[in-house]
Amino acid sequence: MADPAADGGPVGENVAGETPADEPESVTDETTVYEDDVELERTIGLVGGLAIGIGTMIGAGIFVFPGLAATEAGPAAALSFAIGGVIALLVALPTSELATAMPRSGGGYYFVSRSMGTSYGAIVGLGLWLGLVFASAFYLVGLGHYIVAVLAEVGISLAGLPVPPHVLLGLLFAVALTGLSVGGTENTAKLQNVIVVVLLAILTGFLTYGVLDAAGVFGDQTVPEEFFSQGQLPVLTTAALVFTSYLGFAQVATVAGEIKRPSRNLPLAMVGSVIVVTLFYVVTIFVATSSFGAERLGGFGETAMVEVARDLLGQPGAVLILFAGLLATFSSANASVLSASRSVYALSRDALLPRWASRINLRYGTPHIALGMAGGPILVLVATDQVEILAEVASFLHLVMYALICVALLVLRRRDPAWYDPDFRIPGYPVIPILGALASAGLIAFMNRASIVIGAAIMAGSYLWFRYYAADVQLRGDV
Amino acid sequence: MTDRPSILVPIRILEGESIPDGVPKLLADTNVVLLGYHVIPEQTAPGQARMQFEERATARMDELEALFENAGATVERRLVFTHNAQQTLNRLGHEENCLATLLPATVGDLDDVLVAVRGTVGIDRLARVVAGVFAGFGATMTLYHVAREGESDADAQTLLDGLADRLVDRGFDDARIETRIESEQDPLDAIIDATVDFDALVMGESDPTLATFVFGLPADQIAEQFLGPVFVVQREPPEGWEEDGAAE
Q1: pTM summary value
Q2: Residue A334 to chain B, least CA–CA distance (Å)
Q3: Domain B6-98 fold
Q4: Which residue ranges does chain B devote to CATH 3.40.50.620?
Q5: In chain A, what are the domain boundaries?
Q6: Testing the interface with A: which of B43, B58, B88, B90 to mutate, by most A Cβ within 10 A?
Q7: ipTM associated with this complex
Q8: What confidence tens digit (pLDDT) does each residue in B138-159 have?
Q9: Does any CB of chain A come closer than 8 Å to the CB of residue B244?
Q10: Top-level CATH class of A44-469?
Q11: Does B242 contact chain A (CB < 8 Å)?
Q12: Ranges of Acidic residues compositional bias (chain A) (predicted)?
């Protein structure tokens, strides 16, 4: 309909007659500046950015997956985590470059919509929102398992309920978390930083002891079992499953509009958090499989790490890891709910979702509708109790976004529009984004069929929503 | 007119906070840096708040700007949506080279102004604020110092005389300057007690170790108990002040 604006800003309107909000005039180290001397303060520093990335990721990789992964891949599960880490790094680098060129809320959705157009943007954006919803549900089921284990430790059994107790607890926490996000005014970001530091301290101590133990320092050296005990293909399918442990770095990009000194802090926070968690994951799996053997480890399910700690350090170790597991899964779920709400805002800002979806309530100053659009579907998904499907669909939707982020980088570097001026340019262009795109897409092929079907259906639904609701909206930057 | 001091006037723009009576007149000879800010919880993206509230906030800013301009001040205006008010105030204070921040309160007749002097550090900025703001009024300036342990009355008198000289250099009438020294008292309590007879207060920022000034303890405590406006003179910006701030 309308001609593209001279400055290349977003144009068009959706079914409800809403147009995308105006773009900022400039971005400084400390603010995003709009017309009429209106500024948005950037308040998240490097530590805060790392805490978002690490805090989101570490809950899944260490406290939920080790048992499940060991069952599928044996000791080679460590390799699965390493593969996941390499793929995450291949994507984190291009994401960093794009984020320094476009440090705006919405992260991957923003990059893809501005470089490849609204249809891709809608698929990625709605996929990001729902991907985060699936991820949150997955973390909350994990949290439920940890609470059940804590209760078991103090002698309370919840057996005999009509629903599995961990599902019930997951649902309770989903409601509590959404409620807290709407009505809470406490300083959650600082809390997140503290939680991450405490977690890393506990894990470092525990893993150091575990590695020394496995090497035979404290007595009998454990006999290593065959590395590829389940064969080699499961290493890849397991990598696809556990990739959920690497979704957090993209959530740093989701709050890119609030990061101070974005050109420095965004790449450091994204790449840094991926490297840190990869190291922790690989060492954790090594310690876990050498103390128990993959098969017994698998038998312990989602809270396998508690048994590993009990074996290594006795009761106090088990309690410590239980405590850490609670913190980790809670912080993962919390960060994901907030990111999902940010994604809804980004879509609503661009008229791909109704403007009312990002309304702020006057009492608490919080986006209650966007938070509800995260919390509501999470409840339904937690109730399914399908840990692996939840994890894989979350990964699927993120991997689609990751592949498109890599493509977006290739597109922008080739077209080289005037507005594209990243402060951080990745080394190894074009090999890294090409490998990143291929690896992201390739990993999807190793997932369960059910996960692929659900993921593809969500993508198709997203595209249809765009065609129906916002076909006239043009978001692509002037190129 | 050449040396208008820049005074930061922070207003929580969407919470009904307004400019109290007399304040525009008080700042008539200054360059007012009008900072309208809105603090949002971390769950909310600042851009989200802008989308919803910008129109209302801008209309309000227009009114306030006119208020100061009609009184004779020059005005710089900034509207900021932030998660961290302290960070925003610090940044704006430094970006706009503000000599002081005003914690606004109603002023009627401006007859007596209390100027609390901590020490020689920053005394030049203090002099510029006092001279720049109050030169055009007939008010009496009482320079006030609470002597610390081991500090003689003579030392204190030298300190206050030094400030008085600077004010006279800047065109202040000597007859309008008084000095007052107290000792053996907690400085904060002493200042609060002393303010009873005054219409406005000028004081320095707290110790550099306390990163807070407007919401930080001393100025805030005083502002709560003193009913008149308080000018908090800011320190010289330290090197690298923009390094990662309170959010970390």
Answers
A1: 0.88
A2: 10
A3: Rossmann fold (3.40.50)
A4: 6-98, 112-233
A5: 44-469
A6: B43
A7: 0.88
A8: 899 999 998 887 888 888 899 9
A9: yes
A10: mainly alpha
A11: yes
A12: 20-30
